[in-house]
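About this split. The held-out portion is used to measure sequence recovery: a designer receives only the structure tokens and must propose an amino acid at every position. Recovery is the fraction of positions where the proposal matches the reference. Here is one held-out target exactly as it appears in the evaluation file.
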């Protein structure tokens, strides 16, 4: 059953936004760019889209066979992320994330879950994910808290690299974790790669974003890859095939006779 919950909650969210701005910077790959407030303002600006509906194909690799799923994902900016998943024309699960937490059910085993964000933090081997950082992660926005004094910014032919100059510390429920962080951006400030390494463990989180498209003035990545490395390696691939900015209904209710699964 756990692998289906991983599919539902890992794949339940994904996409992005940005406006093009050109910064006049040097092209050195070794000389840090100092005092670049415009760059940091750009990569940390709040998303401006109201809502987006995406048709996607979801592939999850965990070491066990999981079929490719067709998904409808609906994101209402700052409010909710909703997903409905289908395999071979059969509805197999539905889920929703809000600032209060996450909910989901899957039909293979007739189970459902209700949780805060600790489950997704454990899944991603981090300890700082809340709704807003999750939405940013899935939409290709900067999802790690960024303070200019904690990073070194360099320019290269492909764009920009932002690397932590010291370990970043995050505290959650008394637990302190330290990470080394590297983020790559294109010349147009699209986030292209994130690498987050836990200093005290072998845990590593890597994300890549590619094939960005413009939808009514908002930028979205067509391809999102999440690689989670810990005691084992898992991979989540999302191919977004269609985007719409129209509103849609997002019903969610657990069917009768489903069993609640406790998240540990």
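Reference sequence for scoring:
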């Amino acid at each position: 059953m756990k692998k289906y919950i991983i599919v539902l909650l890992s794949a339940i969210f994904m996409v992005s936004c940005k406006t093009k701005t050109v910064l006049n910077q040097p092209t050195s790959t070794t000389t840090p760019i100092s005092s670049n407030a415009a760059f940091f303002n750009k990569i940390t600006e709040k998303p401006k889209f109201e809502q987006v509906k995406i048709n996607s194909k979801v592939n999850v690799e965990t070491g066990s066979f999981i079929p490719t799923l067709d998904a409808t994902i609906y994101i209402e900016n700052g409010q909710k992320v909703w997903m409905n998943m289908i395999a071979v024309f059969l509805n197999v699960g539905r889920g929703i994330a809000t600032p209060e937490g996450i909910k989901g059910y899957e039909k293979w085993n007739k189970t459902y879950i209700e949780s805060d964000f600790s489950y997704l933090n454990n899944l991603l081997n981090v300890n700082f994910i809340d709704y807003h950082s999750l939405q940013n992660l899935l939409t290709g926005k900067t999802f790690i808290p960024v303070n200019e004094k904690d990073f070194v910014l360099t320019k290269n032919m492909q764009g920009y690299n932002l690397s932590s100059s010291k370990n970043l510390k995050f505290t959650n429920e008394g637990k302190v974790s330290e990470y080394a962080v590297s983020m790559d951006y294109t010349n147009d400030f699209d986030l292209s790669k994130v690498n987050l390494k836990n200093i005290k463990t072998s845990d590593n989180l890597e994300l890549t974003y590619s094939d960005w498209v413009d939808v009514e003035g908002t930028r979205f990545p067509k391809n999102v890859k999440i690689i989670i490395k810990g005691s084992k390696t898992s991979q989540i691939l999302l191919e977004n095939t269609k985007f719409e900015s129209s509103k849609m209904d997002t019903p969610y209710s657990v069917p009768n006779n489903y069993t609640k699964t406790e998240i540990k």
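Annotator remark: The two ends are 14 Å apart (CA to CA).
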